Amino acid sequence: MDKIGDFISGQSWLEPVEKGLGAVADALFLKNVRFGEKVRNLFHGTWLGHPLHPVITDIPIGAWSTAAILDVYEVATGDDRFAAGADAAVGIGLIGAAGAALTGLNDWNYTSDKPRRVGALHAMMNIAATTCYLGSWWQRRNSCRSGGLTTGFAGFALSIVGAYLGGHLVYNERIGVNHAPEELPDKFVPVMKESELPENKMCKADADGIPIFVVRRGGRIFALAEKCSHLGGPLAEGELDGETVTCPWHGSKFSIEDGSVLVGPATYAQPCFEVRVRDGQIEVRAPRGMVPNPY
Ligand code: FES
Which residues line the pocket of ligand 1, CB cutoff 6 A? Predict the structure, then answer.
């Protein structure tokens, strides 16, 4: 039961917001054919092995929380000895907010349905918070201290709502988490007959209940989890090109050698199995060195 997500997804007034954000995201990240892919990978966190957006969001949240505490102290005591620190924290938060907006927009552009709408509201709240903090920063620098503190508090309240919705996107809508299976068989299990595996064709199979795909290339056999780590797309229905497979849903590209991500939006590597052939059967197990999930 997801009452908040259901309520937000029923808010049709957010449709133009989605369209506007989508147009900006396309112009920034998709229409730039020359640098688009590199910039997208950079902002997704493909190089980091983890989404970059939640890392960057800690900057404005941390900085603006600091500013709010120092501002409350100033209002409560009349002592402005920490005013310069609060003002600096507001500025640092604004720089972080720019990075959070770019990385978040890039990730959001690959969502659909409910997560897309919740994400649009999350973005709206954060844009409103950033606008307040921009005003606060300007007022603080132009001798309008009480106005700067007030707009700062308003920005902080909006940023809390934005952060809550960001958490909802992760924990309820599972955006940004690893969708590939984590519990892989630690002993070899048979998956298909070797004689049934043609060259250069992805074949679906089942490894102890885990959907996988198996490929033979140049005498070598590769096996990877079938559910894409990004949002669970069916990799076996994607495109096999040399030593890479491209997800049919959003175009993430993985190496079939080791499952590493070559092109985002995926950031987590695709589970890649150890393979052997025994008595004409292809068998797979979790790669050595992988720690089984204890839970
Ligand atoms: S599900 Fe999005 S790239 Fe595979």
Answer: 228, 230-233, 247, 249-252, 265-266
CATH fold for domain 189-285: Rieske Iron-sulfur Protein (2.102.10)
**DSSP string covering 253-265:** EEETTT--EEESS
d(CA 217, CA 42): 30
Look at strands 274-278 and 210-217 and give their pairing: unpaired
Give the separation between CA 62 and CA 68, rounded to whole angstroms. 10
CA-nearest of 43, 89, 95, 50 to 70 is: 89
Residue numbers in the chain where pLDDT is lower than 70: 31-35, 288-295
Distance CA 99, CA 173 (A): 23
pLDDT at residue 289 in the model: 57
Cα separation of 35 and 198, whole Å? 37
Whether the CB-CB separation of 126 and 23 falls below 8 Å is answered with no
Question: What is the predicted pLDDT for the residue at 288?
Answer: 67
Residues 6, 108: contact at Cβ < 8 Å?
no
Structure confidence at residue 204 (pLDDT)? 96
Q: What is the pLDDT of residue 30?
A: 77
| 9-41 pLDDT, tens digit each | 999 999 999 999 999 999 888 766 566 888 899
Atom of ligand 1 nearest to the CA of 179: 1
User: Given the CA of residue 265, which atom of ligand 1 is nearest to it?
Assistant: 3
